[in-house]
Amino acid sequence: METNVNANSNNNSKPQQQVEDENKKKRNGPKRRKVAHACVYCRRSHMTCDDGRPCQRCIKRNIGHLCHDEPKPSQLANQAAAAAISFSAPLHASEKRTSHQFQQHQQQQQQQQALILQGQTDQMQQPSLQHEGMSAVSMYGFNDHLTNLPVTPLTFASEHMGNEFTVISDFLESLGGEQQNMAPDQALPVNTTEKFFITAANPSDGTNEDRLTQVINAKFEAGFLKPYNYVNGYSRLQKYMDSNMSNISRQRILNVMGTFRPAFRSVAQFLTDIDLVLVEEAFERLLLDYDRVFSSMGIPACLWRRTGEIYKGNKEFAALVNVPLEMLRDGRLCIYELMAEESAVNYWEKYGNIAFDAGQKAVLTSCLLKNPDPECQSVISCCFSFTIRRDKYNIPSVIVGNFLPVSL
Questions:
Q1: Would you tell me how many other CB atoms lie within 10 Å of the CB of residue 359?
Q2: Mean pLDDT across the stretch 303-318?
Q3: Which one in 79, 143, 179, 368 has a CA-CA gap of 20 to 30 Å to 93?
C-alpha cells in the first residue's frame, strides 16, 4: 500500500513541475518578430530594426529623415536593364516586323545593356585613371572652361594658406588693385553630410577625445567647418593704406612683409585645412580665457589677429579710444585703424622682426592712439606693449596688447 501511494505521488508531482517550467519559459509582452530586411543604419550598427520607415531606432537618434533600405543586387540589375531599354530605339505597336528584324533588335538591346554594365564597372574600378585624365586635360589646356579657373600655389597642402601667401606676394609686387577672395567653392560629395550625422549620432568606441576628433573630422569633410580666411584681412589693410597712409609708410610696411614672407612660406606650405580648423578651435579657447583675464584687469587691453582685426577688448580700452565695447569684437575694427600713421608703421616693423622668432614674444614700445572717426584729430600718448601668441606650428595667431596712457 505504501509503495502504491508513493508511486501515485510521484506521478502527480511531474505534471506540476512541467507546468512551472513552462510558466518560466513564457515571455512577458508580445513576441518580437524578426525583420527580413533592416534599414541601412541598423544594418551597419548590427542592431534590431523594425518594419516602419523610418524605424523607431532612427527616430530616437534624430536621423529619421535619413532612414532607408539598401537596394538589393537584383534591384540594381533591374534598374540597369531598364536604363538600357530606355536608351534603345522606341518600338511602335503598329509597325510590322519580320522575325529576322525582331532578333536583330533583341541583339542590339543585349549589346547596349552589356556596354552600360561594363561602363559602370570601369567607372568603379578606375577612378584614379579618370582623375589623371582630368588633370591632363586641365594641364594641357584641352578644356577652356577648366583652364579659366583660378589656380592656387601647388606647393601648399592647404588652399587657404596658399591664398594668404599669394596675397603677401602680391603685396610685394604691387599695391594697385583690390585683392579678391580666390577660394573657389568646391562641390562636396553628397554622402559627406550623411556621414557627419551618422558620426555625430553614433560615434565609435573610444575616449572622449577620440570621439570629439571623429566628429570634428566628419563635420569638416561635410563642409560645416572652414579655416579662417586671412585674405580679407590683407585686402582690408591694403585699402586702409591706400586711403590713409603716404607712399613712404606703405613701403615700410611692405618691407616688413618681405622679411617674414620666406619664414611664413616654409611653415605654411605643409599645413592642411583640417590643421587650420584645429588652430581656429584653439583660437576660440584663447578668446574664452582672455575674456576672464580682461574682465579682471584694470589696464586697457585688447587682442587681435595677425592681420590686425580686433576680436576682444575690455571696457577700459573702449573708454580710452572712445568707441563702444561692441566694436571691439569679431573684427569690426583693426588695431592699425586706432593708431596714428607713424605708430601703425612702428607696430608693423616691430611685429615683423619677431613674428616667426620663437625666442621672442613680447615688445615694449610707445604709440599714439586715436578715435577711428576721421574728423577726430586728438591723439592719446601711451606706453604700449604687445605679446605674440603662436599656434603649435609657430605661426602668430593672437597678438595681445596693453596700453598705459601717459600725460604729455
A1: 5
A2: 96
A3: 79
**Domain finish residue from 53, 71, 89:** 71
Angle at the Cα of 303 (from 301 to 308), degrees rounded to 5?
125
Predicted TM-score (pTM) of the model is 0.54
Nearest to 234 by CA among 302, 327, 155, 334: 334
Residue 296 lies in domain: 275-405
pLDDT in tens, 37-92: 788 888 877 788 888 888 888 888 878 888 888 776 666 566 656 555 544 444 44
Instruction: Count Cα neighbours of 388 within 13 Å in the Cβ-side half-sphere.
Output: 26
Sorted by sequence, the CB contacts under 8 Å of residue 333 that are 6+ apart come out as 309, 310, 323, 327, 372
d(CA 138, CA 313): 48
In angstroms, rounded to a whole number, what is the distance separating the alpha carbons of residues 193 and 224? 9
- Boundary of a domain, candidates 71, 90, 120: 71
Q: CB of 176 within 8 A of CB of 244?
A: no
User: By the 8 A CB rule, do 70 and 40 touch?
Assistant: yes
The CATH number of whichever domain residue 60 belongs to comes to 4.10.240
Per residue in 132-169, pLDDT (tens digit) is 444 433 433 434 443 444 444 446 888 888 888 888 88
